[in-house]
Write a structure and sequence with these properties.
The complex is a heterotrimer of chains A (103), B (130) and C (135). Chain B has 130 residues and is an alpha/beta fold. Chain B has helices at residues 16-29, 60-71, 79-84, 90-95, 113-121; strands at residues 2-7, 33-39, 75-78, 107-110, 124-128. Chain B is globular and about 40 Å long. Chain C is built from three helices and seven strands, in the order βαββαβββαβ. Classes of the chains: A alpha/beta (103), B alpha/beta (130), C alpha/beta (135). Chains in contact: A-B, A-C, B-C.
């Protein structure tokens, strides 16, 4: 019974990503969209938490269009975060049993 | 798969309406069904035909209207949220003693029950907002 | 509409500063007519929605906090409060209004609808939902 969690707020401004990480179980997936994609980069104050979540089994994705829009290069994204486009976003929504949007 | 899309923000402050639009388009192009798009809170501001953004800005209302026509989408604007924000069809406008109606083609005004009904009838509810 | 789904409403915003708390309550009350299974979660700043003695008259807002007491009459009997969110904010369950329902299977005895839960318990509420509504 997997849940797709979407987060659209910068982790440097709001606690949505933190809350999401505390409630996402190991079979869940997290997709970072809109301002939340800034959390996908390496060497930030949140990257360690994301890497830990990935190591525990959580799958983390980021919307490529949102990274590109913000001038954030793909090669600075945490290695195990998978980039998707909107079609990939739709696919994630269908592959999971439900979608939780942390607004 | 059957989706319902909920849009909670207007098109000119947050990115969420654009994300909702792009998700909807991708879902349709992937062969999925959109059961309903429900506009709530400031999301109702997507439905006014009185917005006139500068020429180099996208006009999301027009994009929604065109998408609805192309795919015969059911786009519902929450009546209570819309009345508060001055989005009305002819009937609501007359009932409230106003001179104009401004709802864009493709959008309909209805109650919150339409959101709950859509959530019951769909496989996935996608919420875009602030 | 024979199918019964599990609706979970997640409330994470403080009242009055934005419209979300009020609008969430409206969906919950209207949704009750659809006879679905309903659970409410109050977490993060959402726990402030249930504080006692709210009096927004001085800021020109409607005092909808009294409406929460009616949830029991709408057969909403499962209200989850995130303990960690209360602690982070220096609050305890005693700072919140008590929400109750009458149990028709137990001689209409009045019972509390509120369940103080951990993040782990909340995760399982979320992971068992059919529909998640966020406010």
């Amino acid at each position: 019974m997997a849940t797709l969690h979407t987060v659209n707020k910068s982790p440097f401004e709001r606690n949505s990503l933190d809350t999401c990480l505390s409630l996402c179980n190991n079979s869940g997936s997290i997709l970072l969209i809109e301002d939340a994609v800034v959390g996908a980069l390496r060497n930030t104050s949140v990257s360690e938490r994301l890497v830990k979540a990935i190591e525990s089994g959580v799958k983390i994705f980021a919307l490529g269009e949102d990274l590109k829009a913000r001038g954030l290069p793909e090669d600075r994204v945490i290695e195990k975060i998978t980039l998707v486009d909107y079609t990939g976003f739709v696919k994630l929504a269908t592959e999971n049993d439900r979608v939780q949007s942390w607004l | 798969m059957k989706f319902t899309i909920q849009v909670n923000t207007g098109p000119f402050t947050h990115q969420a309406s654009d994300s909702a639009y792009r998700f909807t388009l991708a879902a349709l192009e992937s062969g999925h069904e959109i059961h309903r798009i429900f506009f709530y809170h400031d999301g109702v501001n997507n439905a006014t035909m009185m917005c006139a953004p500068p020429q180099d800005d996208r006009n999301l209302q027009v994009l929604w209207t065109e998408l609805a026509a192309q795919y015969e989408l059911d786009m519902v604007v929450c009546v209570a949220a819309a009345q508060r924000r001055g989005i009305m069809d002819k009937k609501e406008s007359e009932r409230n003693g106003k001179e104009f109606a401004n709802i864009a083609p493709g959008f309909q005004i209805s109650g919150l029950g339409q959101l709950v009904e859509a959530a019951v009838a769909s496989d996935r509810l996608m919420v875009f907002g602030d | 509409m024979a199918e019964i789904k599990s609706f979970v409403y997640i409330n994470r915003k403080a009242p009055h500063g934005t419209i979300y708390a009020l609008e969430s309550l409206e969906v919950v009350l209207i949704g009750a007519a659809f006879d679905q299974q309903v659970k409410l979660i109050f977490m993060d700043d959402g726990v402030y929605q249930l504080t006692k003695n709210q009096d927004p008259e001085g800021i020109g807002m409607k005092n909808f906090s009294k409406t929460y007491a009616a949830l029991g009459d709408y057969d909403i009997t499962e209200i989850y409060i995130d303990q960690e969110s209360l602690e982070q904010r220096g609050l305890s369950i005693d700072d919140l209004q008590e929400l109750v329902y009458e149990d028709e299977d137990d001689d209409w005895k009045e019972k509390s609808s509120m369940r103080l839960v951990s993040r782990e318990q909340l995760a399982s509420v979320i992971d068992s939902a059919d529909v998640l509504l966020n406010f």
